Amino acid sequence: MKSALLKHSIDKPLAMVTHGKGIFLYDDQGRDYIDGSSGAMTANIGHGVTEIAAEQAERVAFAFRMQFTNGPAEELAARIANLAPGDLNSVFFVNSGSEASECAIRVALQYWKEQGRPEKVKVLGRKISYHGMTMGALSLSGHTGRRVDYGPLLHPFPVAPPAYAYRFSIDGNNTEAYAAAAAQAFEDAIIEQGVESVAAVIAEPIVGAAGGVLVPPPGYFKRLREICDRLDILLILDEVITGLGRTGAWFAASDEGIDPDIILTGKGTSAGYTPMAAVIIREKIVDAMRAGSGYATLGHTFSANPLSAAVCLAVLDYVERENLLENTRVRGEELRQGLEALSQRYRHMVDVRGRGLLWGFEFVLDRSTKKAPPSQRSASAVFVQECFDEGLIVYPAGIAPLNNAIIVSPPLIITRDEVQELLRRLDKALAKMELAMNAWTETEAEIHLA
User: Fold this and answer.
1) Of the listed ranges 155-159, 215-219, 317-321, the one predicted with least confidence
2) Residue 147 has pLDDT above 90, yes or no
3) What are the residues facing 158 on neighbouring strands?
4) Less Cβ crowding at N or C end of the chain, within 10 Å?
5) Are 52 and 273 spatial neighbours (Cβ–Cβ below 8 Å)?
């Protein structure tokens, strides 16, 4: 029968998932799949954790935020604020990472309006970035593949070059020199836009879908923090992927040693057990709102609903009780070693990069030239299918024709043996991918000779 459910690839048949347990998902044919990407870097505590907040629905599932507060939301906000760096002490809850990005725009603009500087209205991002699919969030995003259909409706906010050493570091530059150059390029973009009009800049600590786990050089974000302070601009960190455990720390901001002005979280906030995201805000911003209008005019019907808040509290309890941050660091090192060993064996797999349990790599036709596969042949999409056939789920990333990347980000509960099984299945898919890439390379050579 024709499905009434509209899917991303409208006519492509999909396996029917029936249940999940731990790092595994199962379909109606009895096949198991290692969830090697945590869905979309979301299922941090794995599948089938039955204790997640079942009793809250029996008390009260919904209360509108302008009529009531509630215990679970108050406790969740306090716990997240306590985990956040510096004085990011206020939390506003939304439904998704895209909504968190939209909310951050509004917070930044309201802050400067309350400060008597309404001309500061631009929120600048980077040319390789992704902050969500709503119109404001997509305006912040340097993801050409997702912007193309909405061009005239979007603001041209992604203006700064990325921190992407594999593609853009100048030969001979050490990491410190590249960090300085990449941060300076961001400052140059701000100045070109007009400092007086810029309310904030936004960046992912580790670029996810747009780049395939692009890790900044050490010192890059400290320089960006200094630039924002010097130019009187807010710094927003989009931690929708990295936040609440994915890197082995509660926040990647702590990995970078900085206190941003606003942090966005999403996926790890609920680990997929309910739609929930958060905007975490520094004290000075909320003080300006309090001293000015006295309102945080941010909207959202389901913000801080008690059922979702209780779910997120249970997720935090689970992460802490099972010591998943430590597990993430240990298993992440094992995964890194395994991926780097595979990269040595397969000549088209390059630039293994990541932190904690968030890892990526990309495919090239030739290591010496770093040439990406032709855009009409999405290496990422082909490899995702090869992995799926081997019972492994990975996530396609990157922006053709610049790069074809893959994200490997299993649930934070993964064990040592499960890491090895993931790598075994990945190895089998890479062996098939190597043959396909060799054929593409030969075709490219023939076209060049012709």
Assistant:
1) 155-159
2) no
3) 125
4) N
5) yes
Query: Is pLDDT of 16 > 80?
Result: yes
Three-class DSSP category at 345: helix
The model's pTM is 0.94
Query: Residue 444: its pLDDT value, please?
Result: 67
Q: What average pLDDT does the segment 73-90 reach?
A: 97
Q: In what order do the strands lie in the sheet with 198-203?
A: 88-94, 277-282, 262-265, 234-239, 198-203, 122-126, 158-160
- Among the residues of 163-219, which ranges form H helices? 165-168, 175-193
The answer to whether the beta carbons of residues 320 and 3 sit under 8 Å apart is: no
- Look-up: residue for tokens 């259909």? 149
Euclidean distance between CA atoms 284 and 271, whole angstroms: 30
Residue whose token pair is 């992440």? 332
Amino acid identity of residue 249, one-letter, is A
Checking if the pLDDT of 173 tops 80, the result is no
Q: Of the candidates 136, 150, 143, which has an alpha carbon nearest to the alpha carbon of residue 102?
A: 136
Instruction: Give the number of C-alpha atoms closer than 13 A to the C-alpha of residue 175, restricted to the C-beta side.
Output: 7
- Maximum pairwise Cα distance, the chain: 72
Integer Cα distance of 212 and 206 in angstroms: 9
For strands 395-397 and 262-265, give the pairing.
unpaired
- Tell which residue, 117, 144, 116, 120, has the closest CA to residue 130: 144
Secondary structure E strands in 85-194: 88-94, 122-126, 158-160
DSSP class per residue in 223-244 = HHHHHHHHHT-EEEEEETTTTT
Q: What are the structure tokens assigned to 185, written together?
A: 């390029």
| CA–CA distance, 280 with 293 (Å, rounded to integer) | 20
- Burial pattern 1-33, b for ≥16 Cβ within 10 A else e, equals eeeeeeeeeeeeeeeeeeebebbbbbeeeeeeb
At 376 the pLDDT is 56
For the residues 132-139, what does the mean pLDDT come to? 92
Minimum mean pLDDT range among 8-22, 194-208, 226-240? 8-22
d(CA 283, CA 287): 6
